Structure formats: C-alpha cells, structure tokens
Amino acid sequence: MQQGTLLPTARPIAEFSLIDQKGAPFTLDSLKNHWTFTFFGYTQCPDVCPTSLAMLAQVIRLLEKDPAVGTLPRGLFVSVDPKRDTPDVLAQFIPYFHPDFIAATGSDEELHKLTRQLGLLYGKSEGDNENDYLMDHSAAIILFDPDGNYRALFNVPHDSKLIANEFVMIKDYYETTQ
Questions:
Q1: Fewer CB within 10 Å, N or C, the chain?
Q2: pTM of the full predicted structure?
Q3: Where are the domains of the chain?
C-alpha cells in the first residue's frame, strides 16, 4: 500500500459516547455494519480540515462510480472543539462536503478516550481571547471496519485515488478473511 497502513490485525476499541449533528448518540455501535472513514478536526480550521474533508468526499465519489464496490463507506468528521462545534454548527458545516457525511463531537473526556486509542493527538493553542483559538490535531484518516474495529490509517499527504483503490483492497482482504 502506498497511501495507507493496514493494521496487521484489526484493533478493537473501547466504548465511547459522542453526539452527532442531529443531536443523536454516536457510539461504538454506530460504527458497526459500515466501513467508516474518520477524520478528526474542527469547523473553524483554516487549512487541513476543509482540504481533508473535500478529499474524503472525492474518495466517496470515486467509489460511487465503481459498482463492484458494493456498499459504500461512510465519512465521519469528529470535532475536537466541542465548545464551538455544537450539533447545530456541525449540521450546517458537514453537508458542504458530502450530503451523507456524519459529524459528531463529545466531551473532552470522551474525545480523549477515543483519540488515545487511535494514537491521535489534539490540543488547544490559545489565542487573543477565550473564543479566538486554534486546535492542533492529527491529520490522519482512520478507517473502521464493519465490526467497529480500527483497520487502517491514511497519513498525509492524502491522495483520493490511492485511498479509493486501497480501500477496495482492504475491503476485499477483510471479506476473504471473515
């Protein structure tokens, strides 16, 4: 694989509790029965977040053109800025990239619980006042398999064609080993 890293064995993750853009719970069970590309960031991000989400939407569009893919993966954006990124803010933000993308956030405790299991980092960079700040965060895309396990990692720079092709390989591998 050129773009991603397939974990030698799927990594189960512990239960977590987030809230999606509709105000509904998003938990480990929400990951099950779907392939899910997941990106962690925040809506006021000036650079990597919009670029990565647009690229992820392109991955989905490329896969939509291939009938052999079968069930399409989902896109999930997890905000690491729960103070500003409320469900209402997420509901306005995420459809800009793809109408089927899901956005979620949670308490700092729940976000830390989830990101630490995935080896991802994030933190607040203080600004001039309490509402003027940036969030530093990992830029990797995580792929969860239909069992809700951490299956692969895609690091920057992201290439939509490579990720789409490698997703098909990962999915085929998963299906032959079940």
A1: C
A2: 0.94
A3: 4-12+33-177
